From TrEMBL:
SUPFAM superfamilies: EF-hand, FKBP-like
Example of a GO cellular component annotation carried by this entry: endoplasmic reticulum
Domain PPIase FKBP-type as annotated: residue spans: 38-126, 150-238, 262-350, 374-461
Catalytic activity: [protein]-peptidylproline (omega=180) = [protein]-peptidylproline (omega=0)
Gene3D superfamilies: 3.10.50.40, EF-hand (1.10.238.10)
Protein name: peptidylprolyl isomerase
Annotated spans, Disordered: 526-557
Organism: Sinosuthora webbiana
EC number of the protein: 5.2.1.8
Residue stretches making up the EF-hand domain: 480-507, 517-552
Record keyword Glycoprotein present: yes
Subcellular location: Endoplasmic reticulum
Keyword hit for Signal: yes
Length: 557
């Protein structure tokens, strides 16, 4: 029709137009909807005469035109020319007088029998029967829960008009939009559009005006009767009634004990937001987090979430904000009202009242003699953390470990675990840190670590009382000094002293403190008796331990 009207000059003037002439000079590649009779539309236009003189423009008024198409509220030519248009489509319309203002015109504006030329761009189309249009753009594979009314949500969004004009964005503000759903705090369309979303899901939500800002619009950015398009990414959500949610990822088959209030727990964790953003990790510091549970030292949700864990358990703890850092968040990594997810691996735990746990793996038959404090023992051991991390082993050395029990030469828990053992007996010892290396740990041993020892007693020698290096099996000789002075020269040098003591041991009259180096024990005895350190013992210097205890001056014999 347009070609017919604007055909070659040789054909002559075809005469008056019978219908509106439509030139669709721009058609968008994607046209989801065309304007139909009865639809409500918004559009901009420029109106001119044939000579190009402008008689009207919505642009000059700074406001779009809104109305219903095809029901006689517009001039007939415009009613016909707008039908079938897509959003963002542009048309040139030529409206003959009988489809415009006819032979009357508009006083002072449009003369009678004027042909009108319109340049139109369609901005919005909707219908009173329209419903919310929701398109899921992406959705996580794992979705245990979806948004319901009364939930508190945190989401990012880009908001545009139907023609793509942006009017708002949470991204530009650098923070999520946080609100309750279904309580009237949002426009109706967004209240409905967020329902059923998973954390991490992305949706496109097209909201008709009657579910948005309606006839009034909103400020200068959302015109009246505007359809809105929101691209929404749900970051997280929770309900004020939510408690801690636990997911048992891996529980050891053997779980002899579970953590309770008052226990001290060492655990590793990764802390993330619901969208997977990592905000903290003990692994990155290569150090466990160590704390008491149930005593308020950690956020309430973690206090609850660690109750009942087993050693070695992997557990996921999902904590709503009212049991975490609340509306204020924490630092620059945990936003206000954020749901937190902790993936926890429990290394060990203990209670400050715990004793050494002893499990006898093997005990020889006919076990009549057992270890006591002051006994000298030789034993093999393997030491590890409760998660299986190997620390030390006597098997790495040529000889077994040697120690005098009760002499503060090993940690208290190991000393206790080696008592009342038979030679050949094997035990497993679980030693809490207060009987091990304490809060500070030791070289190769983390602070507050529970230790596991596998011990095997190789041999034992009866000890002597504390403070003694040698004890008599009976009464000591009445003339002790004379017998010790082998050459009767009035002085006892080190070699005479050593010979005398070895003879007493060999004859079963006494015994030395057990040691891997008896010569050193004898040398220490001589040094204690040689009061003036002149290399020999005189009658005045030689004293029995019982006499020294009374005088509280010297060491022992």
């Amino acid at each position: 029709l347009l070609l017919g009207v604007l055909g070659a000059p040789a054909l002559g003037d075809p005469g008056p137009l019978e219908d509106v002439v439509i030139d669709r000079y721009y058609i968008p590649k994607i046209c989801l909807r065309e304007a139909q009779m009865g639809d409500f539309i918004r559009y901009h236009y420029n109106g001119t005469f044939k000579d190009g003189k402008k008689f009207d423009s919505s642009y000059d008024r700074g406001a779009t035109v809104a109305g219903v198409v095809g029901v006689g509220r517009l001039i007939t030519g415009m009613d016909r020319g707008l039908q079938g248009m897509c959003v963002n489509e542009r048309r040139h319309l030529i409206v003959p007088p009988h489809l415009g203002y006819g032979s009357i015109g508009v006083a002072g504006l449009i003369p009678p029998d004027a042909t009108l030329y319109f340049d139109v761009v369609m901005l919005d189309i909707w219908n009173k029967n329209d419903k919310l249009q929701i398109t899921t753009l992406s959705k996580p594979e794992r979705c245990n829960r979806t948004v319901e009314n009364s939930d508190f949500v945190r989401y990012h969004y880009n908001g545009t008009l139907l023609d793509g004009t942006p009017f708002d964005s949470s991204y530009s503000k650098g923070s999520t939009y946080d609100t309750y759903v279904g309580t009237g705090w949002l426009i109706k369309g967004m209240d409905q559009g967020l329902l059923g979303m998973c954390a991490g899901e992305k949706r496109s939500i097209i909201i008709p005006p009657f579910l948005a800002y309606g006839e009034k619009g909103y400020g200068t950015v959302i015109p009246p009767q505007a359809s809105l398009v929101f691209s929404v990414l749900l970051i997280d959500f929770h309900n004020p009634k939510d408690g801690v949610f636990l997911e048992h990822l891996e529980v050891p088959e053997s779980c002899k004990r579970r953590a309770v209030t008052g226990d001290f727990v060492r655990y590793h964790y990764n802390g993330t937001l619901m969208d997977g953003t990592l905000f903290d990790s003990s692994y990155s510091r290569n150090q466990t987090y160590n704390t008491y549970i149930g005593k308020g030292y950690i956020i309430p949700g973690m206090d609850q979430g660690l109750q009942g864990v087993c050693m070695g358990e992997h557990r996921r703890v999902v904590i709503p904000p009212h049991l975490a850092y609340g509306e204020n968040g924490a630092g620059d990594k945990i936003p206000g009202s954020a749901v937190l997810i902790f993936d926890v691996h429990v290394i060990d735990f203990h209670n400050p009242e715990d004793p050494v746990e002893i499990e006898t793996v093997f005990r020889p038959e006919g076990c009549n003699v057992t270890t006591r404090n002051r006994d000298f023992v030789r034993y093999h051991y393997n030491c590890s953390l409760l998660d299986g991390t190997r620390l030390f082993s006597s098997h790495d050395y040529e000889k077994p470990q040697e120690v005098t029990l009760g002499a503060n030469k090993v940690i208290e828990g190991l000393n206790s675990g080696l008592l009342d053992m038979c030679a050949g007996e094997r035990r497993v010892l679980i030693i809490p840190p207060h009987l091990g290396h304490g809060e500070s740990g030791a070289r190769g041993v983390p602070g507050s670590a529970v230790l596991r020892f596998e011990v095997e007693l190789i041999s034992m020698e009866e000890g002597v009382p504390e403070g003694y290096l040698f004890i008599w099996h009976g009464e000591p000789p009445a003339s002790l000094y004379e017998q010790m002075d082998l050459n009767k020269d009035g002085g006892i040098p080190a070699d005479e002293f050593s010979t005398f003591i070895k003879t007493q041991v060999a004859e079963g009259k006494g015994r030395l403190m057990p040691s891997s180096d008896p010569e050193k024990v004898i040398a220490d005895m001589f040094r204690n008796q040689d009061r003036n350190q002149d290399g020999k013992i005189t009658p005045d210097e030689l004293k029995l331990k019982s006499d020294e205890d009374q005088e509280k001056i010297h060491e022992e014999l």
